[in-house]
Structures are given as structure tokens and as C-alpha cells.
Design goal:
34% of the residues lie in helices and 24% in strands. It contains 14 helices and 21 strands. The strands form 6 sheets. It has an 8-stranded mixed β-sheet with strand order 12-11-8-13-16-17-19-20, with helices on both faces. Helix 3 crosses helix 5, helix 4 packs across helix 7 and helix 9 packs across helix 14. The two termini are 30 Å apart. The structure holds cytidine-5'-triphosphate (CTP).
Length: 404
């Protein structure tokens, strides 16, 4: 529920692309946002107020007042209510009226009354979009501080092809979410992130592993990319996927492979966050063929182990003054003391302390409860949150350290 408590006002104008807005409303509501909708009278021809009021769970407003009962829809109240006002689709006609500062319908009057950031997403035919009048109106609106969500290029409802398609609802949703979470706070940064478990081979069919799902590391990678960073994600064996174009994913299996990839990537990175649950020991001599049950019974059931390389500690040794290093500590007892010791011995700037004793935290769940521990002794307790929200908190803390 990343948008819980956020108030989003959507103004729909007359364009065929209005059919995409119910999906956007659903996406926003699923993330916990409060959504209210204004329509111009002509927008009713393209999408029904009933669909939108059902999805937004709010009455859809078009007129400044009701002629039958005289009730009043205050554009001033709506303008004050919103944290963000999105006009989508924004027709050529509405853009022109907005540029002139006209107030001849409820939507336009609310634009004038809005105190929050105003985004507009044009949708029209390619020639209308490229017309100097429209371009001039857009320029005026941008110069006044409004933000345009660029229309995409492609097939248009008219049969023509070119710029003018309303951006897809999923992308508009991402932009709104990014706006609320400082999308560009990590712009220009390159971050190495490790995630998941490692598997240490006993023989070709058996391994030593652990319960890590990789969810925390993947949430960190996705969120860092959404905040503008380039991410090198070194992932152990997990059943997860990532989509973001700024994430380069390198799949590894063993602690040794993870170590090699991290050492290669780290010199080019501004920071590293090591959230992987790396095996501390690996079989001394993995068998090349499957170990037969009989052989085990005959020779005893002992597997000789040797320590793996500590990746975090190695990066701590290589770290320059400009680089930041964040480690995780998974503890079941003496949590604070052990985490502080790891912070010092592994030369980290911050440790994320995970306690397996906390309900809702740990392996295979979608939530986590952590404490952020800094070098100056500060410790910040975060409440139980989704792993996505924890990732936002960790990356905001990292961004603060970068700016310190
Ligand atoms: N880590 C690592 N390489 C290892 C082991 C751990 O990079 N071979 C990293 C983890 O990714 C994590 C941090 O070190 O960021 C702490 O991991 P944790 O398992 O809590 O601690 P260990 O150092 O392994 O110590 P212990 O098992 O004694 O608690």
C-alpha cells in the first residue's frame, strides 16, 4: 500500500483514450491511494461516470452545482484536497483552455484552484498534437510548472500513426508512484545489490543452501532502479524476475561465484548493498558423481566443510572513501551487539538488522521488520512493513548518506 494516504485527483477530458483511465484508477486504489474524479461534460461520451465511481468509490463530479437539489461541488475544496492533480487524457481543447486560464467547467476551475503539482497527459491525433497552437499551449503550461506526461508514438484511433497516444496506464501509475517516492533521488548512482541464497554443491544432485527467497534483495534492486539508479543485481538461485531496464542481473549459484562477480562489479559502483544470505561454509571436495547411499553408509556420513570468502568483508577492505557499503545482519540472539560488531569488522556504513524473532519478518514472507544501524551509533527502528516499503526506507537512508 505504497500510496496509502495520498490523495489523487484525476481530470478526464473528451478523448477516446479515456477508456484507459478505469485501469489507472484500479492501480492507484490497489496501492491505497484515495482517488477522486472530475470529468468535462463531453468526456461522458467516452467513458461512463458509473464505471469510474464504482472503481474510485467516490461520486464522479462534472458540474459545479446540482441544478435539482442545489448542492455545490466546490472547486476550491477539490483543489486543496489533492496531493496531485492529473489531467488525463488531456484533449487539445482543455490544454488550450488551461493555457488561457479559463474556468468554464468544474475541471478547469479546479486547475486554477489547485495548490498541488499538476500533471497533464495529452491524447489527440498526431497533427493536432504537433500543431503550433497546441505546442505553444503545452509550453505555456510547462513554463508555469505543470508537468507533462509525454504522449507515446504509435497507431492512433484515427488510423494515423505518430505521437499523440495517451501513455499507458501502467506507466502513468509508475510515474505517479515515482513522484511520491523521489524517483530521481539516486539518479546518476550505480549500486551493486546481492540477493538470495547460495547453493554449495555436495555432489551433482545435492547442495547446502538456506531459506532465503531473495525477495528483500529484489525489492531493493527494483526500488533503486525506480529511484533513478543503475543496478547490478547479483542473484543466487531464486524464483523471482525483474523487469526494469536499469537493472543488469547476473545469476550465480555458489558463494565463490557471487564473490567473483561482486569483486568485478564493485569498483564501478558508488555503493553496494549486500542482502544475500551467503553460505559461510562449502564442502571441501564436492563429489563429481552422485554419492551413493551405500558409500555413505560404508564410509560414514561426514561432509568436510571449508569457509567461503566473506564478500561483505572483502568489499569493506576495498572500499574507497567515496563508496558506501550496506550490509545485512541476520540474528537470532544478541541482535544489536552482533550487528554493531559486523558493522565495524566489515567496514560498513550501515547495517540492516533483521531479527528472526520478529513476527512477520524473515524468510519467504512479504513483510519485514528491521533496524538501521549507523557508524555513529545511531539506530533507527522501522515498524513492520512490506519488503518494498523497507527497500524504500533503506534506499532513502543510503541517499541521505550519499548527500551527507
Ligand atoms: N556476507 C557475505 N559473504 C559471506 C557471508 C555473509 O557477503 N560469505 C554478508 C551478508 O550478505 C550480509 C552480512 O555479510 O550482508 C552478514 O551476514 P550474516 O550471515 O548475518 O553474518 P556472517 O558474517 O555470516 O556471520 P554469522 O553467520 O556468524 O552471523
Amino acid at each position: 500500500m505504497l500510496l496509502k494516504g495520498k490523495k489523487i485527483l484525476i481530470g478526464i477530458t473528451a478523448s477516446i483514450a479515456a477508456y484507459k483511465i478505469p485501469l489507472l484508477v484500479r492501480l492507484l486504489k490497489k496501492e491505497g491511494a484515495s482517488v477522486r474524479i472530475l470529468m468535462t461534460p463531453a468526456a461522458h461520451d467516452f467513458v461512463t461516470p458509473l464505471t469510474l465511481s464504482t472503481l474510485s468509490e467516490e461520486a464522479v463530479l462534472t458540474q459545479p452545482f446540482d441544478k435539482v437539489d442545489g448542492s455545490w461541488n466546490s472547486h476550491i475544496d477539490l483543489g486543496y484536497w489533492a496531493d496531485l492533480f492529473l489531467i488525463a487524457p488531456a484533449s487539445a481543447n482543455t490544454l488550450s483552455a488551461m493555457a488561457c486560464g479559463r474556468a468554464d467547467n468544474l475541471l478547469l476551475a479546479t486547475v486554477l484552484a489547485a495548490r498541488c503539482p499538476v500533471f497533464f497527459a495529452p491524447a489527440m491525433d498526431v497533427d493536432m498534437f504537433q500543431h503550433p497552437a497546441t505546442q505553444n499551449n503545452i509550453k505555456i503550461l510547462i513554463d508555469r510548472g505543470n508537468q507533462m506526461i509525454e504522449p507515446a508514438s504509435g497507431a492512433l484511433a484515427s488510423g494515423l500513426c505518430g505521437a499523440g497516444r495517451l501513455e499507458e496506464p501502467e506507466r502513468i501509475f509508475e510515474l505517479i508512484r515515482g513522484f511520491f517516492f523521489n524517483e530521481l533521488k539516486l539518479k546518476g548512482q550505480k549500486i551493486l545489490i546481492t540477493a538470495g541464497p547460495t547453493y554449495e554443491s555436495i555432489d551433482p544432485v545435492r547442495f547446502i543452501g538456506n531459506y532465503s527467497s531473495g525477495k528483500m534483495g529484489f525489492a531493493l534492486a527494483e526500488t533503486a532502479a525506480q529511484m533513478g539508479a543503475k543496478v547490478c543485481l547479483v542473484a543466487g538461485p531464486v524464483h523471482l524476475s525483474v523487469q526494469h531496464p536499469s537493472i543488469e542481473r547476473i545469476d550465480v549459484t555458489t558463494a565463490q561465484e557471487m564473490y567473483e562477480q561482486c569483486l568485478k562489479a564493485f569498483p564501478d559502483c558508488n555503493a553496494a548493498i549486500l542482502s544475500a544470505a551467503v553460505a559461510d561454509f562449502t564442502p571441501e571436495a564436492p563429489a563429481l558423481q552422485k554419492i551413493k547411499k551405500g558409500a555413505l553408509l560404508e564410509n560414514g556420513m561426514k561432509i568436510g566443510l571449508k569457509p567461503t570468502k566473506d564478500i561483505l568483508k572483502s568489499l569493506g577492505g576495498l572500499k574507497t572513501k567515496e563508496q558506501l557499503l550496506v550490509g545485512f545482519a541476520l540474528e537470532t540472539e544478541n541482535e544489536q551487539t552482533n550487528a554493531k560488531e559486523k558493522l565495524a569488522t566489515k567496514n560498513c556504513n550501515m547495517i540492516v538488522l533483521n531479527s528472526l524473532n520478529e513476527k512477520g519478518a524473515g524468510f519467504h514472507v512479504d513483510t519485514n521488520k528491521v533496524q538501521l544501524i549507523y557508524r555513529d551509533g545511531r539506530a533507527e527502528d522501522l515498524p513492520l512493513k512490506s519488503k518494498k516499503e523497507v527497500a524504500i526506507d533503506i534506499l532513502n537512508a543510503l541517499a541521505d548518506l550519499m548527500n551527507a
